[in-house]
Amino acid sequence: MTGIEFARDLQIAATGARRALAVAEKAVADLTAKAEAFALSLGQPGDAALAAVAANGDALLTGDDVASILRVSKATLARWRVLGTGPGYVKKQGRILYRAETVEKFVTSKERTKTREEAKS
Fold first, then answer.
1. pLDDT tens per residue across span 51-66
2. What confidence score (pLDDT) does residue 48 get?
3. H or E element, residue 19
4. Which pLDDT does position 77 carry in this prediction?
5. Which of 27, 46, 75, 117 has the most CB within a 10 Å radius?
6. DSSP string, 27-96
7. Each residue of 2-30: pLDDT tens digit?
8. Is the pTM of the predicted complex or chain greater than 0.70?
9. Closest Cα partner for 106 from 95, 72, 33?
10. In 10 A of CB 43, how many CB atoms?
11. Residues 29, 36, 56, 75: what is their CA dihedral angle, to the nearest 10 degrees?
12. CA-CA-CA-CA torsion for 11, 16, 17, 23, nearest 10 degrees?
């Protein structure tokens, strides 16, 4: 592989990572807006952050949010949970939630720099 090909592959990988990060950031912003609207509907402004944040401060995403980020169906997420191949999740009061950081790490772990693996000898 030449230096030019390597640089091109790195640029492609970086572009993909930036796009995934932008989608994740938008999902977190959307989730925060939803939580704010929910808190306002309950007449509790200022408590919105509590609805969208885990005990340790991580933003929590719903299955709908994660399915949108990863561009898969909710059924695919459910299948991944059964198989243990998808992003990690937490179950809180019977709801499946995903930490934004965990989803980002999942996307990053799936990045590739080549379309095909080299033959191992």
1. 455 555 567 888 988 8
2. 41
3. helix 3-41
4. 94
5. 27
6. HHHHHHHHHHHHHHHTT-TT-HHHHTB-TTS-BEE-HHHHHHHHT--HHHHHHHHHHT-S---EEETTEE
7. 778 877 887 888 888 888 888 888 887 77
8. no
9. 72
10. 7
11. -60
12. 150
Residue with tokens 């030019």: 4
List Cα–Cα distances, 61 to 9, 40, 66, 71, 118, in angstroms: 31, 19, 6, 14, 37
Of residues 51, 54, 68, the one with CA closest to residue 99: 54
Distance CA 69, CA 39 (A): 24
Residue 1 DSSP code: -
Residue length of the chain:
121
In the chain, the amino acid numbered 8 is R
Is the per-residue pLDDT at 88 higher than 80? Answer: yes
CB 99 within 8 A of CB 69: no
Residue type, 49: A
Cα gap 119→12, rounded to integer Å: 23
Rounded CA separation 26/24 (Å): 5
Instruction: At 37, list the tokens.
Output: 């609207």
